[in-house]
């Protein structure tokens, strides 16, 4: 094996002395065979020679950095998910143990509430796993105007929801997933609204623009990206009992991205979803074009 030539980027004409790498040099310069998921912080030395060896070393280090970041995100996700699951499971177990010893003290409504909460969290975690695995929406036309009207009527929220559909918009994707985006945005608005929630739908060039807003305090400018991170709750109002596990907005943005769109906090308490219109070319126009951001 020693001395055998590898030519990742050989010059025209084949493998010559220039740009060729022998196996013994490869394994001496790139000792990555022993790198596993516990040693991703290791890096290949960069000699600064300006040749193929240096370029491969830099590429290898960039790959290791990306892999290390990905594994760290997965570890944090598992830790956060375990923490969120522990609370409702412990509460449910306590209620059942009390009920077993003293049936007259069994809090059935509380046990049902904890079960529903646990079921919803498990469903959210499963959906995130599917999205992370690259789930793609189906190629089906969805009438956003009809979806908005139907979802708002079905919810029967305690606060009034004002709907303004300025123009009919059809997009391509999963109706169920897009309904979940709208539902998550409405849930978020309801938790922070004082008196009213508003939903608007309009066209903006080749894009459908759906906005959900409320008359609450809004999201501080320095938190408008962080709010889309998983398991993030910005304030005490977003408690576990009232505001869930902090996955709703993260799921909503992931679904928007899978549908070729974007989801941002446009202004204070205004969440703006932009999706490409079905059958309309979006070339030359980015998803945030004309958004005023």
UniProtKB/TrEMBL annotation:
GO terms for molecular function: phosphorelay sensor kinase activity. PROSITE patterns: HAMP (PS50885), HIS_KIN (PS50109). Keywords: Kinase, Membrane, Phosphoprotein, Transferase, Transmembrane, Transmembrane helix, Two-component regulatory system. GO terms for cellular component: plasma membrane. It is found in: Cell membrane. Its EC number is 2.7.13.3. The keyword Aminoacyl-tRNA synthetase does not apply. PANTHER family: SENSOR HISTIDINE KINASE TRCS, SENSOR HISTIDINE KINASE YKOH. This is histidine kinase. It comes from Streptomyces xinghaiensis.
């Amino acid at each position: 094996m020693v001395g055998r030539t590898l030519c990742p980027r050989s010059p025209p004409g084949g493998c010559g002395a220039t740009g060729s790498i022998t196996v013994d040099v490869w394994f001496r310069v790139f000792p990555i065979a022993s790198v596993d998921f516990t040693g991703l912080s290791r890096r290949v030395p960069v000699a600064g020679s300006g040749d193929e060896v240096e370029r491969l070393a830099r590429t290898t280090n960039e790959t290791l950095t990306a892999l290390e970041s990905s594994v760290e995100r997965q570890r944090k996700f598992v830790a956060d998910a375990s923490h969120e699951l522990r609370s409702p499971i412990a509460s449910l177990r306590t209620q059942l143990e009390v009920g077993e010893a003293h049936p007259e003290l069994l809090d059935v409504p509380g046990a049902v509430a904890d079960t529903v909460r646990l079921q919803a969290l498990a469903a959210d975690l499963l959906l995130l796993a599917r999205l992370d695995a690259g789930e793609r929406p189906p190629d089906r036309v969805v009438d956003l105007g009809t979806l908005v009207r139907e979802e708002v009527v079905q919810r029967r929220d305690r606060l009034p929801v004002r709907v303004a559909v300025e123009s009919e918009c059809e997009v391509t994707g999963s109706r169920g997933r897009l309904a979940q985006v709208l539902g998550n945005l409405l849930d978020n608005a309801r938790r922070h609204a004082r008196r009213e929630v508003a939903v608007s739908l309009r066209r903006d060039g080749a894009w459908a623009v759906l906005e959900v807003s409320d008359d609450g305090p809004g999201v501080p400018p320095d938190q408008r990206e962080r709010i889309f991170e998983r398991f993030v709750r910005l304030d005490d109002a977003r408690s576990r009992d009232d505001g869930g596990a902090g996955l709703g907005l993260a799921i909503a943005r992931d679904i928007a991205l899978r549908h070729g769109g974007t989801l941002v906090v446009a202004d204070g308490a205004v969440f703006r979803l932009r999706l490409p219109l079905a059958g309309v070319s979006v070339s030359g126009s980015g998803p945030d074009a004309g958004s005023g951001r």
